[in-house]
Amino acid sequence: MQLRYQFRVCPTPGQRIRAARVFGCRRVVWNDALSRIKPVKASNKLLGNPKKRLAHGPYRLVPKHPNLAKTLITEAKKTPERAFLIDAPVGVMQQTLRDLDAAWKAHEDSKTGRRKGPKVAPPKFKSRKDNQQAARFTRSDRWSITETSKLRLPKIGDLKVKWTRDLPSAPSSVTLIKDRSGRYWASFVVETDPAADILPPTDGDQGIDLGLTRFAVLADGSHIASPKYLRRAEKKLKKRQRELSRKKKGSSNRDKARIKVARAHANVADARRNFHHQWTHKLTRENQAVFTETLNVRGLARTRLAKSVHDAGWAQFVMFCEYKTIRRGRDFAKVDRHFPSSQICSACGHLDGPKPLHIRQWSCPNCDTLHDRDWNAGKNVRNEGRRILAASATAPSTPGPGARRRQRQRQTPVERT
Ligand SMILES: [Zn+2]
Questions:
Q1: Could you tell me whether strands 331-335 and 289-293 are parallel, antiparallel, or unpaired per DSSP bridges?
Q2: Which of 3, 59, 165, 236 has the fewest Cβ atoms within 10 Å of its own Cβ atom?
Q3: CA 372 / ligand 1 centre spacing (Å)
Q4: Is 331 labeled as catalytic in the residue annotation?
């Protein structure tokens, strides 16, 4: 299983300048390549016969432009306008071309329906003012971790890293990230040993009903209180935002205020992620099986509950649950989005029709059981999860069409410390 391990990096002022140059070179190569392929795409020259194109699969940038790297990196370095490209390792810039290619492919595939899920916009030009800057160093760049535990990146130097844990295996690449609040991170992709994290089996399973008044209600009747970090931090955020809007555009004071706003946002996100890690850790450790709902977060986020929905961050919680159960050899199932978890009586299975949100308690007309709305939903999620699990255990497990692609497209979970 692939995981991302992320550590804080503390660059010196000189290293910050050199890192900014690497980010800049990467950006220039990206933009140069994009400005070249955009007109080409518009005139449709390279695409040829549309029928042929469909038969041969989606349009790819790299195989059609074997010399793109040569033109945009090697040759460009010799010209006075692009002489500064010498400040970045070649591999980082080549990686940029591959990233751009992947972005085009994702866009093309989502247009033709090869890629499921939300539509992917075409790649955009990058700007110095973008929120996040990043550069990926691959093996060919010969980056390393020194004997004094520093991260040696070519053209930047030996960076001090706050190692908070050991890497489970040798990483294949490292990405240096500068986030919107001005913090630097080293992000390693590592292959984890599937056997290392498997826990001895236990019994017990848990159904989780996610909600707004309480973050989650579990099938055993206990609940996780809603932390509402964002609401609490909102006052502070508003103040920072006001300060920012008073600063003159383009001034360095405005930049400083912008970073303060970004920091306030980052603190909220960090606290939320910690909260999710703690609870998913506990739930997947104590139970052999964990069941959750599939939430239509996108749909809910459009309603007037939007702020609370984003605040809760359910999608992240469910994603953590999923990868932790897989990693630990536990079972996991997501109950279908249309499963009426709040309408069924968990005691007798009677389907009682939809109930408005303000109804917190109801009794089953069939068996007279008094239900707490959310607890009942948690029990239903558990029952349905058990059913799904039993069904998948008896059915032959053949991954459906596109299963491998979906696996690839799934985000690599980040273990940030
Ligand atoms: Zn009943």
A1: parallel
A2: 165
A3: 13
A4: no
Residue 297 Cα distances to 269, 301, 315, 316, 373, angstroms: 17, 6, 7, 11, 20
In the numeric block, the tokens 């989005």 are attached to: 337
> Where are the chain's structural domains?
2-191, 205-394
CB distance 295 to 388 below 8 Å: no
Q: How confident is the model at residue 236 (pLDDT cuts 50, 70, 90)?
A: confident
Query: Please, which residues have CB within 8 angstroms of residue 114's CB and are 6 or more apart in sequence?
Result: 58, 108
Q: Does 408 have pLDDT greater than 60?
A: no
Specify the residue for token string 């070519």.
154
Distance 371 CA to ligand 1 centre (A): 9
Cα 188 from Cα 415, distance rounded (Å) = 10
What are the tens digits of pLDDT across the range 150-170?
A: 999 999 999 999 998 888 888
Distance between Cα 179 and ligand 1 center (Å): 52
What pLDDT, on the 0 to 100 scale, is given for residue 25? 94
pLDDT attached to residue 59:
46
CA angle 219, 333, 324 (to 5 degrees): 90
Which one of the listed residues 293, 331, 384, 415 is annotated catalytic? Answer: 293
Contacts of 125 (CB under 8 A, 6+ apart): 30, 31, 34, 35
pLDDT, the chain, mean = 82
